[in-house]
Each structure stands twice: as C-alpha cells, then as structure tokens.
Design goal:
single chain; 426 residues; Aspartate Aminotransferase, domain 2; Aspartate Aminotransferase, domain 1; 12 strands; globular
Amino acid sequence: MSRHRTSARTGRPFAPQTLMMGYGYDPFLSEGSVKPPVFLTSTFAFRNAAEGKRYFEWAYGLKERDPRHDPEMGLIYSRLNNPDLEILENRLSCWEGAEQGLVFSSGMSAITTTLLSLVAPGQEIISTNPVYGGTDFYFEHICPRSNTPVHRVCAGTDAPAQVERLLRERPGRVRLIYVESPSNPTNSMTDIAALREVIQRVGQPPEGQEILLVVDNTFLGPLFQQPLQVGADLSVYSATKFLGGHSDLVAGAVLGSSSLLREVGVFRTILGTMAEPFTCWLLLRSLETLSVRMEQQQQNARRLAEVLTAHPAVARVFYPGQLDEEQNAIWKRQCQGSGSLISFEVRGGEEEAFRVLDTVEICKLAVSLGGTESLVEHPSTMTHSDLDEETKRQAGISPAMIRLSVGLEAITDLEADLVGALDTIV
C-alpha cells in the first residue's frame, strides 16, 4: 500500500482512513520501522555529482523530469524536500482526491504564500466576509502595499450574486476569489459550485490566465467538506486545527492540481515557509485518528447545539444544519457533516458573554479550534479584534457572540458545564 491508493490484488480503492496508516511510506527503507522516523536533517547526501546535478535541475525547473524514463526525484535539502514532508503531503492529498498537496509552517503561511505566488501586483481579489482574523489583516493591511485591491462580499446565500456583479464591473482585473465556508466565526455557508458557475459564465480573467477559486476548508475539512470536488481550484487549511487535532503544533496546507501548486511550491522554497520535519511527523500521527476524532466531536457538538438552542440565556445559535432554509440547502448540497464549531449569541452583550466565558470550568478560554479539548473565545475582542466596528456589524460578529470548539470530553460534563455557565446570566 505504500505506493498505491488501490489494492494491488483487486484494484479496489482504499478509503482515506486506511491510506493514513501506510500510504507513501515503505518500512523497509527505514530498518522495518512500522512508523516513519523523524528525519531531523538539514541536508541529504548524493551518490555522485551527476545525481546532485540532476536533482537540482528538476528542483529549479531547469529541466523537466520524464516519469517514463527518469529515476525518482531525490532528496536535496529540507527547505526543498524531506521524507516526513513528502509522506505527509502524499497522505493529505488523498482526502480530497487532489493531485498534490503542500504543507507549510502555519495556516497563514499557506494562505499568504499561495496568494503571493498566484496574484501579481495590480491584479485583484474578491473575498467573502468574515474570514479568519489573520487573513483579514493580510487583505486589509498587506495587500495594499503590493497594489492588490481586495473587494469584500458578504459570506452566505447572496455571495455568488455579489461576486457576479463585481466580475461584470471589473473585467480582466480579478485573478482570484477567496472563500471561507463555513465562515469564521458565523458559520455562514457559501455555495462553492455556484461560484464556479459564475466564474465560467461571466468571468473575464487577466490576459493569459484564469480566475481561481480558493476555499479555506479549515472548519469542516477534510472529512465533512471537499471543495475540490464541487468546483474549487485550491483547498487551504490551517493544519493546526483538526488536521493536527491536539493543540500541540502549528502548520498549514494547500491541496489542488500539480500545475497550480508547482508555482506555489517555488514560492514556498524561496520564502522558506515549509513545515519542519517534527511538525510533519506529528501531523502524520494525527491523520491516523482524524476521522474518529472529527466524528465524535461532531456528535458532541450536535447535542450541545440542541442544548444551546433551548436555553433561555441564548438568543441565537450559528451551526451548520441549523441555519435558515437557504443556508441549510447549501449545506446539504455541499457538505457531509456539521462539524464541531458552534457560535452563539447570549442575551445581552459583552458583559454577559464575558461572564459565561469566565464561569465555564471544562471549556478552556483560548483561541484556536479543532483540538481534543473544548475551547471557548470571544470573537469580537479576540480573534476578530482587528476589525473595525462597522465591519464586525456587517459580518454579524456581535459583542454577545461566543465561539465554541467542541472537544472529546464526556458530553454529560460538557453539557453541565455550559448550562451552569449560562444559568449565571438568566
């Protein structure tokens, strides 16, 4: 199974959960070790000078490698490639049926390296709003320095129509459309397939290029949503979250076609934004339990969403599958699950939200999400504090909102903890 995604005997494709246990790794190249070792080396030896020359020609695009006749690409230097990095990228690509995956030192390095490599100065981006706070800061404060205008549309049901209007107004200017679905922290669902249809129907890309659709799949992926299967060109992740799943690493990833990721990979090499070997090894460990973790977290979250909806201190719950009719229709077409991120508004404002956050015992008051432990935070003053008040209002981020990342604790304990904290503001 180390080199194949299908059974050598029957041709039957293996499920991603199975591939996470051995795909891309040959134990007998590492003394029979069942698990890949951590390759803590900065550089790799060549058998001879000709081999070193050949590897560098391929690595820097000086010559094209012919897979029919040429030997496999070898290892050069851990800023370019490393066994742990390559095994991890091979396994990640299985989840969305991607041709290739790239892994980065953080989610933000994955996002920024991708955008820098694919959007030239003077070209434009359309982004849904809200997005993760770091992404928003990049759009608002970094992109203007490179003359890269970013136009914002509201995430959700009307996003495709808003994108269509902007594309008609700005022919030949827009290079990339960036989407978070579900959005952070409001869980608004944006129809990826509808955006692809809009691009194909009215999009006029910069000369000699195409308009790219990039989706941040951190909240539901890769188990409950696969953007590449419904029209996205690239699927980006903060691998710190569910992919890592234990709150003990920081990393990012991008999945997509080899042709697009070739340019992204060049930028990663030169900018030095790749993940280091030990982080890759930790992610390989985490991928083996990804499915069971996300399924159990979802089961806990669905119960807590019901509890929150029924509690008199809660004004509104934002959770996929429990949104309005149009939003739920998008969710049903696009997703295979609800995930374990819940946002909710308490009755009152910041004071009441803070009282709940300061009262919970099991849920830890911390940013991030997707780990084995439950986390709560206040988006307006924490993850999205850089947004001005009007932008927060437009995005639906109120002072009364709390974001909850549901973990693997006993659901009876989580329910009692949350209800007890909410009872203090009734």
